[in-house]
Amino acid sequence: MDILFAASEAHPLVKTGGLADVAGSLPRAIKNSQTEIRLILPAYPAAITNAGKLKPVAELKLPGTTTPVRLLQGWLPHTRVRLYLVDAPEYFDRPGGLYSAPQGGDWPDNADRFALFARAVCSVAMNRTGLEWQPGVVHCNDWQTGLVPALLSLEKERPATLFTVHNLAYQGLFERDRFQALRLPDDWWSMDKLEFHHQVSFIKGGLVFADRINTVSPAYAQEIRTAEFGCGLEGLLEYRSNTLTGILNGVDYQVWSPGRDSSLPYAYTAHRPAAKLKNKCALQKAFGLPVEPGLLLFGHVGRLVEQKGIDLILQLVPKLLQRSMQLVILGTGHRDLENLLRQANSLHPEHIGIRIDYDEKLAHLLEAGSDSFLMPSRFEPCGLNQLYSLRYGTPPVVRSTGGLADSVVDATDANLLQGAATGFVFKNANSRDLLQAIDRALELYARPDAWKTLMQTGMREDFSWTRSAAAYRDLYTRLLDP
Ligand code: ADP
Ligand code: GLC
């Protein structure tokens, strides 16, 4: 079985969020003696630097552009997964974010950038680059690769296509003039193809044209068929529901395990969790908080966007100050949220530590040093931080949605009694429900034996990629032999 896995980011090459964690670890988990899987990404400067040794293997002639495009070949670091980088300097070699300019705001040519990337992926998929390799399945991820299934649908002898939705809220919407400039077939400008409320929607390329669609948790696969979570695409997803499945993301325990995490000052395991406390003190110091080993320390890492419910935490600040606890948050995102967090920090430096930054190493220390991880997401396709929290003995407080609902077992009396509980789950996205869950965590924390059992139950859970990789191999097999 030969698979081409296309994504716009992959750890440790380039990362803005969970998609990179998945694209950097799922292919390695899928690869086995019967499955060859190769990863293809845009050649951003950081990807070129972090990939190490690369060699140019093809010059691509792509429709609709005269810009030089080369294919660079290497390996996804520390794996035996073949890597291709699409090197189009005019489109990808620039300082700034993967999707946004240094001064903020999306790159104005994102439609052109990811259309070019999609065309390059198709060129490899159709074996037109001289590599003498043709995949049977092209596995696309999120809107940046949405045009791939659409463009491949125009080919006669084409590979099958799978489109994975990591987040339906990001759709790759552009004005009509972009649609025209990209010279896509005229009849794609219609509601049942790429048009979405008078714009061109790249994600619809995947949702309409892919042979199969999946998303990153079973619960989210159900949710996106409803108006509450469907972002206007629920009708289409309902229509395609016979090809839509949910597969929960896994964790790369080589990167995320407190027993062998090189980012941590002190290693610990479920069997010997004592050194977690030393990481807690290190974390309190790193955030300038009083070193108080006995106070419940809540933590959060993430993109500061509406999805993650940071505003619900902010609304609770006056109430949190009345409780015996501390809070640390690491993140970047919306300027307003960043400023409100900075303000909370400067008003209450004894209780609240904030770092507005993107810092991979500090994210690991935060998972290890916090007692509990707050994740009050309004929606969460899968969520990786709650899975990391479970492994790091940091029982998460989560809203019952998407992958959070699929991975955390609430500390009800019955679940605690059975030794099944792993965290605190609340129902509605409001600060009252969140506070109730925080209070339940504080109550249990006051019972050290019960808390230790909760921690260790989570630490012993297995969310490694093994099961999910097998589910993806199954999907590929069904695509190849419908
Ligand atoms: P999403 O993909 O929606 O951002 P996930 O929970 O799936 O959410 O994954 C987020 C990933 O990005 C995690 O690996 C998390 O540690 C990382 N991350 C997010 N923000 C930061 C940050 N400011 N510093 C370091 N890592 C971050
Ligand atoms: C998205 C989602 C997140 C998911 C990640 C990886 O960014 O917001 O829930 O874990 O993709 O699939």
Describe this structure as you would to a colleague.
It contains 20 helices and 18 strands. By secondary structure, the chain is α/β, with parallel strands linked by helices. The chain folds into 2 domains: 2-250 and 465-480, Glycogen Phosphorylase B (Rossmann fold, 3-Layer(aba) Sandwich); 276-459, 3-Layer(aba) Sandwich (Rossmann fold). Strands 3-4-5-2-1-6-7-11-12 form a 9-stranded mixed beta sheet, with helices on both faces. The chain has a 6-stranded parallel beta sheet with strand order 15-14-13-16-17-18, sandwiched between helices. A 3-stranded antiparallel beta sheet has the order 8-10-9. Helix 1 (18-30) links the parallel strand 1 (2-6) and strand 2. Helix 1 crosses helix 20 (466-480) and helix 10 packs across helix 14. The radius of gyration is 23 Å and the shape is globular. The relative contact order is 0.10. Bound molecules: adenosine-5'-diphosphate and alpha-D-glucopyranose.
